[in-house]
Amino acid sequence: MKYQFINQCGSAFRVKKMCRIFNISRSGYYGWEKRTKSAREKENEQLMDHIKKAYMLGRKAYGSPRITEELRSQGILCGENRVARLMRINSIVAKSKRRYKITTHSRHKRPIVPNLLKGQYIDKPNTAWVSDITYIKTYEGWLYLCIVLDIFSRSIVGWSMGQRITDDLVVNAFLKAIMRRNPGNALIFHSDRGSQYASYRFRNLLVSYGITQSMSDKGNCYDNAVAESFFSTLKTELGYRYESRSIARRNIFEYIEIFYNRIRRHSTLNYLSPVEYERKHMLA
User: Fold this and answer.
1) Nearest CA-CA partner of 125 in 153, 148, 147
2) H/E element, 70
3) Computed over its alpha carbons, how large is the radius of gyration of the chain?
4) Distance CA 33, CA 16 (A)
5) Mean pLDDT of the chain
6) Which of 144, 153, 176, 204 lies most in the core, judged by the most C-beta atoms within 10 Å?
7) How far lies 27's CA from each of 35, 98, 183, 226, in Å?
8) Which residue has the higher pLDDT, 126 or 22?
């Protein structure tokens, strides 16, 4: 009876104090508690251990759907409702995204090209790439990140960082993507109307590779949303400010090349990573 009372009141009073009042040992109480746990409670404890590991693997950004898929991929049978309930009881919450701030500089007199995507469905890799630039805060000043993303798999195929927001960022990210993918000329390269993408240097580079350029319609960045979503995800999961540019560079490199492309599960890709999604496409 004493053990049962302590078990029922454990959330209101300290176990140590109640054991002293009832003149019983804590080891005796914990031994009783372990023996009397139901099979379901023991299963939940084991499942909770797996949930915590999956949560940390996902950089504390996984909610119950992604964690459920991660556990199932490990052969652990569980339902999403059960995972969600255990996460709620144990106060495990996925990081929430901040609203992404648009930073495009489109007030220039450089040539603008039509939007060739218009929300069309992309069913194979290296058909349409989208690119964007974002600001990274550090205590040393700004660092700028440009990425090139394959719309089919959401894979980051090229990226570059620099202290100045010039067309060098775009050119370097694009050339890295070309070296990695060798896409051929049946490719649309889409971006916003930023001056870096409208520069003569970059437009001539696209022409030299036989790649068709596309830009979002004025006031409509829908086709660029996948790139903006990536930036929002990156800043949520990595943080919004760094001690130095070198730390930011190192963390962003590791995030893109090791975690995001190869590990992170995407709801739009049936909870596969970009690399896994492309591998399955090649085997289909």
Assistant:
1) 153
2) helix 64-73
3) 25
4) 14
5) 87
6) 153
7) 12, 47, 66, 55
8) 126
Contact of 167 with 204, CB cutoff 8 Å: no
**Contact in structure between 143 and 163 (CB atoms under 8 Å):** yes
* Amino acid of residue 44: N
What pLDDT, in 10s, does the model give residues 61-119? Answer: 888 888 999 899 899 988 889 888 988 888 888 876 665 555 555 565 677 899 998 87
Dihedral-angle region of residue 244 (phi above 0 means left; psi in -120 to 50 means alpha; beta otherwise): beta
Positive or negative, the Cα torsion across 274, 279, 282, 284?
negative
Give pLDDT, residue 98: 60
Rounded distance, CA 110 to CA 92, Å? 49
How far apart are the C-alpha atoms of 58 and 94, rounded to whole Å?
A: 9
| Residue 107: alpha-carbon gap to chain centroid | 31
